Structure formats: structure tokens, C-alpha cells
Amino acid sequence: MPKQDKNIRRAAVSILRAWSKGHVYAENLIDKHARRNHLSSADRGLLNAIILAVLRNRRLLDFYIARCRHGKLDHETRDILRVGLAQILILGIPEHAAVNETVNCGRAPVRGLINAVLRRGIEKRKSLMQRAAELPPPNSIPTPTGSPSAGAPNMAKMPPPR
To answer: How far is CA 154 from CA 21, 135, 150, 158, in A?
Structure first.
């Protein structure tokens, strides 16, 4: 039996990085990583849930990140934080599992930062949820390249919910 790489969070970050570059549809990336990592249907479901939670709530997650950490972040670290906060604040995954697995996705120099931001998100959960109401409605729909598009969401890039 092939060796299984079960780090679903690392696969999620990899998918988000490729999606943000506009390479492939999110659903195709999920299928590719699920096959490559020999994920069970339960693990594939978790991967799918994480990706869709991040894509559908990117703006909200960035709002949470800004409340937990000031300063610039590189794109990969921001995606790792999105994955972690989506699990904790949107999907309700147990905190210890979400933090531990998500921190391990980062490079050694940023693991402390990732841990601190995720722990701060846990501590500030109630106030973050309340302050989310301050977030103004979107002026446009985000696309993989980050450039706004007016009108309906780009359904070609986001599969329908299952």
C-alpha cells in the first residue's frame, strides 16, 4: 500500500495557492490532492469543507486575521491562517486539532506566528463574531486572481455545495 500523507491542512493550503494563481478549478484541485494523498472519503470531505469554507468566507477570514495580527503577511502564511481560522471559527473543528495540524503546515520561521494568531482567534472568538457585523457588504465578488468582478459569482471557479 502506498505511503499516505494525511496532512489535509497542507493539501488545503496547496490547493488555495494554486487556485489563487488561477491555474485550475477548485474542485479539480481537491480531486487531484485527494488522489495524490490517498485520502479516505471522510478525509476528502474534510478537505472539501475546508476549501469551500475558505473560498466562501475569504473576506471574513481576512477581517478576522486583521483583528488578530497587525502587519503584512506573505501569501502562503495568510492562506495557512485562513485554513486555521476557517476550521476554528466557521467549521467548528476542535481547537487542538485545528491549531496543531495547521501550525505544522507553516515553515519553521513562521510557525510561532501562526500558532499565536490562531490562539488569539480562539481567545477573541466571541468579539470577532460580534465585530463581523461591522464588515461592510462586498462591492464585488473576489476571483482567484484577487481582482474584483461585478455581478454574479464566478461559479466556474467554485463548485456548487453538495
So the answer is: 15, 22, 10, 7
